[in-house]
Amino acid sequence: MTRGTRAAAAASIWLLTFVTFASAQTAVLSREQLQALVDESGTALRNLIAARDQPPASALAFKRDKRGKSPTDDLKQYVLPQELQLKLETLEGNAARDLGAGDLPGVQFQLVELRQNLRAGIDRYQAITEYWRESASQPYTEGAARKATLKANGIDTPNQAEIETLSAQLDQQIASGDFIAAMRTTWPKLNELQKQARTAEYQQLLSRVDADKLQGFRSATPGRKCDPAEGGATSRTDTPSARPDFPSINEYFPTSMKRKGIKSGTPEVFVVVDARGCPESAVLVGPAEHAEFDDAGLRLAVDGRYFPAQKDGKAVRGGFYLRLSFFDLL
Q1: Residues sharing a CB contact under 8 Å with residue 309, sequence separation 6 or more, in sequence order
Q2: I need a labelling partner for 91 at 20 to 30 A (CA). Which of 16, 145, 279, 288 fits?
Q3: Annotated domain spans of the chain
Q4: Residue 105 — very low, low, confident or very high, per pLDDT cuts 50/70/90?
Q5: Does the structure show a pLDDT above 90 at 189?
């Protein structure tokens, strides 16, 4: 771990512990107690500034959401903007000055406002970082093509109206900078409903794949020997997941698309994975704009390496959506 990484980690730990501070008491505290609070508050303020200003994790460095914003954009705008930072630094300085002058009630008055604002800033920092770590910040309308395909085949998506209402509410809250309400209230409800909807879709799709009753779905089956997950490893969830040794998507980029200068395509497939982690089949549920990407996505899906789903502590057969983003970097 580098010095910079250690410093960032220490700042994050301090932020987490600082939010547990007690509310200011009505009685005036002793000089020693107030000195400890001034020191703690000053350290927390500097750590919050450092956490706000540190570069985002590599996985988030180039991420953009529906607004075209980045994690850095939101942290700079909503966590201690310049005017508020100056105000809190002034409050800290005033508290230290009053302490030196022996004005203990004045110190406590300054600390109440300083710590309230710090707590709000820390809560906002945590909500923003949570937003960017979660799929809530994905810049696309998830599964639009897939949902149309499923609907055409009579596969129901439960709670769709409520999901759309909560999605719109989340977008509005994020657009207005209300990350705390978005991530503490709206997103947990929306995420849970989306998970329930996906589970229901998976069950219907798996049943129809087994019964060979899907109409108009393009599909593929494996053309090479399976490489099972080692040691009985599973995804540890109720759906399969891709393994770290999943094939490189770049190797499957359609040559015909390169020749035509078409740089990207994003098909979505439903992959059926057995209890060993071996793909059984893949079904195209969300076509890309060009069929060549659909073919490439299906081939990649059935060549993929997976962890099987898990139920009651055991590996089981299951299926899941796999969204494949082809992008020509050359």
Answers
A1: 234, 235, 237, 238, 239, 240, 273, 315, 316, 317, 318, 320
A2: 16
A3: 3-137, 144-211, 219-327
A4: very high
A5: yes
User: Which residue do the tokens 């893949």 mark?
Assistant: 282
Return the C-alpha torsion angle 126, 132, 134, 140, nearest 10.
Answer: 150
pLDDT band at 6 (very low <50, low <70, confident <90, very high): very low
Q: Residue 22 has what pLDDT? A: 44
Q: What is the rounded CA–CA span in Å between residue 51 and residue 57?
A: 12
Rounded Cα–Cα distance for residues 201 and 158 (Å): 9
Q: What is the pLDDT of residues 8-60, one digit of tens each?
A: 444 544 554 454 444 444 577 899 999 999 999 999 999 999 999 999 888 88
- Could you tell me whether strands 314-316 and 309-311 are parallel, antiparallel, or unpaired per DSSP bridges? antiparallel
In whole angstroms, how large is the CA radius of gyration of the chain? 26
CA-based nearest residue to 79, from 188, 180, 206:
180
Check: CB of residue 293 under 8 Å from CB of residue 326.
Answer: yes
CB 261, CB 275: distance < 8 Å: no
Which CATH entry fits the domain spanning 219-327: 3.30.70.260, 3.40.50.720, 3.30.2420.10, 2.40.320.10?
3.30.2420.10
The pTM score is 0.80
Q: Are 166 and 189 in contact (CB under 8 A)?
A: yes
Contact present, 319 and 209 (Cβ < 8 Å): yes
Q: How far apart are CA 254 and CA 276, in angstroms?
A: 30
Fold (topology level) of 3-137: Four Helix Bundle (Hemerythrin (Met), subunit A) (1.20.120)
Torsion 139-140-143-144 (CA) sign = positive
CA distances from 236 to 91, 176, 195, 202, 282 (A): 49, 36, 15, 17, 21
